[in-house]
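Figure 3 (text version): structure tokens given as input.
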């Protein structure tokens, strides 16, 4: 069968529709309409534009206009049949485009899931990644933005962030997508300004309460997945620790995963060092909050007191009480380190709410 090469290749049967309408006034039957729809689908699959196909139909209408058929009724019958035929063709064309778009989106979503979770064969994943401008042999970093509402690829916030990055850096080698309601930016590891700019744009576009985490650049086939998991862990850590910063870098928070790696040892440190605070009137929480504010203030009593809405005298009394109960003096550098590490551990383990 000869390959079709242009819009005129998809006009089979159209001339008969015109001549039948002119001769008998008969409109296209179901078979002819279905044939026009199929031709429209095939033209879309072949990559032809709908505009060129409609132009080909109009040109064919002029070429096959029945001779001598110029009365108003004849013109109306022929144009009515042409309208039905072209409408059926356009319907088939649009249906094929919708199906292709849905299939493309499904393929893209499957690729995104495989990329972010390190699934699929590495060679196949790398080949699919090239369609999106990603070379998995290089290092990539992943930034994740979350807000009070979930975002998908078509959300105005996602589109705004994507357009901002495309306008600044172009779309090559940068992938903007969404996953589990969060906006994801996959960027080459040697372009540190891209995730920084993404964080700035995402924070500006997301309503109050937005937070962005940036994973470290990782190389290899699973590099994107590792960086993505690191960014997610950073978001979880920020929630658990109560960090106020809107933008967090995993590279600046490495001490926390190190502390949490041996949970049993960390739990022993927390219980041994801070457990005695439970003997205080009101329990351990007020004194734990005092230590947190004191360390966050750089061990400046006046600033910590303002944070807690206490007088400096009241804060000093609490610190003395902590020293008495725990045997660790917050003013002593070595003992202060033990206390501060225990306080961080308490926040990581949600102590004393979870014992």
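Below: residues designed for each position.
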């Amino acid at each position: 069968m000869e390959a079709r090469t242009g819009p005129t290749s998809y006009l089979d049967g159209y001339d008969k529709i015109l001549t039948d309408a002119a001769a008998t006034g008969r409109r296209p039957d179901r078979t002819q309409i279905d044939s026009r729809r199929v031709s429209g689908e095939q033209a879309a699959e072949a990559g032809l534009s709908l505009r060129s196909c409609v132009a080909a139909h109009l040109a064919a209408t002029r070429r096959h206009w029945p001779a001598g058929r110029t009365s108003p009724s004849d013109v109306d019958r022929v144009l009515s049949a042409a309208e039905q035929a072209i409408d059926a063709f356009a319907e088939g064309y649009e249906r094929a485009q919708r199906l292709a778009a849905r299939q493309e989106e499904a393929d893209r979503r499957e690729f995104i899931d495989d990329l972010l979770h390190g699934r699929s064969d590495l060679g196949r994943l790398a080949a699919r990644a090239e369609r999106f401008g990603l070379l998995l042999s290089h290092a990539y970093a992943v930034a994740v933005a979350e807000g009070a509402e979930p975002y998908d690829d078509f959300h105005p916030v996602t589109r705004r962030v994507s357009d901002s990055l495309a306008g600044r850096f172009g779309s090559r080698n940068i992938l903007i997508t969404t996953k589990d309601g969060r906006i994801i930016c996959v960027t080459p590891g040697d372009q540190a300004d891209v995730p920084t700019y993404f964080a700035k744009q995402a924070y500006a576009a997301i309503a109050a309460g937005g937070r962005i985490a940036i994973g470290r650049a990782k190389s290899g086939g699973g590099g994107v997945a590792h960086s993505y998991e690191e960014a997610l862990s950073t978001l979880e850590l920020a929630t658990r620790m109560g960090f106020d910063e809107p933008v967090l870098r995993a590279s600046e928070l490495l001490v926390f995963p190190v502390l949490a790696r041996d949970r049993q040892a960390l739990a022993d440190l927390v219980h041994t060092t801070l457990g005695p605070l439970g003997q205080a009137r009101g329990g351990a929480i007020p004194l734990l909050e005092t230590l947190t504010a004191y360390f966050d203030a750089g061990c400046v009593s006046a600033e910590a007191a303002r944070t807690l809405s206490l007088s400096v005298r009241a804060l000093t009394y609490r610190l003395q009480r902590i020293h008495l109960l725990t045997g660790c003096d917050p003013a002593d550098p070595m003992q202060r380190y033990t206390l501060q590490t225990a306080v961080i551990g308490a926040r990581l383990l949600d102590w004393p709410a979870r014992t």
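The radius of gyration is 33 Å.
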